[in-house]
Design brief:
The protein has 225 residues and is of the alpha/beta class. The protein has one domain (32-59, 74-209): P-loop containing nucleotide triphosphate hydrolases (Rossmann fold). It has helices at 44-51, 74-84, 100-109, 115-128, 144-156, 174-189, 201-204; strands spanning 2-13, 16-28, 33-37, 59-64, 67-68, 85-89, 162-166, 193-197, 209-214, 217-218. The strands form two sheets. The chain has a six-stranded mixed beta sheet, with helices on both faces. Strand 1 and strand 2 (16-28) form a beta hairpin.
């Protein structure tokens, strides 16, 4: 599903460059549940943003579903990401002025779904996540755990093949965090590929494989200490 070869990202700092990612080689198969771990500043969130096609300022090769992302124009990249990738953020990123229903429906409005299809898909996800009773509430009327549940629902309503999660339980207490992670496990068992960034060893146990980064290098890579 995903193949990275010699992927690197840096930015100029005066006469030199500061490296964020160095020589990343990584393969992720469809149906995996992969955890990316490492200390702050290791490049974890940057790698996730590149995988989600939210960051274009990198070099190297990135193949996604057999397509060369590195050779695509920005619009093509964005369209590919929207069609196949769902994103869950630590800060929820819900739209305060929209109801739960409207927040979940938002990603469907950017794609070629009829109004009837959108209504059916949102109704299905509200029922699946047991939040039908919250559909007319606004984000500020929800707890942190409920907001993140809505964030996950919004990320998967279009049935993406891959779900990317950046510290998805960082703002939640332990019971809420476990509920979100159990939900990720269920989605993965149903066929969704999941890649999460986390500092939590407990969250990492939900996955099948851990990729560790340090100072932009993958653990075990040539040049990594």
């Amino acid at each position: 599903m995903i193949s990275l070869r010699n992927l690197e990202k840096s930015f100029p700092t005066g006469p030199t460059r500061t490296w964020v990612l160095r020589r990343i080689d990584l393969d992720i198969a469809a149906g995996e549940f992969v955890t990316i771990m490492g200390p702050s500043g290791a490049g974890k969130s940057t790698l996730l943003a590149i995988l989600g096609m939210l960051d274009a300022g990198w070099t190297g090769e990135y193949h996604f579903l057999g397509q060369p992302v590195h050779a695509m124009k920005p619009r093509e990249r964005a369209d590919l990401g929207r069609a196949h990738v769902g994103f869950v953020f630590q800060q929820y990123h819900l739209i305060d002025s929209l109801t739960v229903y409207e927040n979940i429906e938002t990603p469907l409005t950017y794609r070629d779904f009829s109004r009837a299809d959108r209504q059916s898909m949102v109704a299905d996800i509200l029922d699946r996540f047991r939040i039908v009773g919250k559909k007319d509430l606004f984000p500020n009327q929800l707890s942190g755990g409920q907001q993140q549940l809505v964030g996950v629902a919004r990320a998967v309503v279009a049935r993406p093949q891959i779900l990317l999660a950046d510290e998805p339980t960082g703002n939640l207490h332990s019971a809420q965090a476990r509920e979100i992670m159990e939900l990720f496990r269920q989605l993965n068992e149903a066929g969704t590929t999941v890649i999460q960034v986390t500092h939590s060893e407990e969250n990492a146990e939900f996955g099948s494989r851990i990729v560790r980064l340090k100072d932009g290098w993958m653990e075990g890579a040539a040049g990594a200490e």
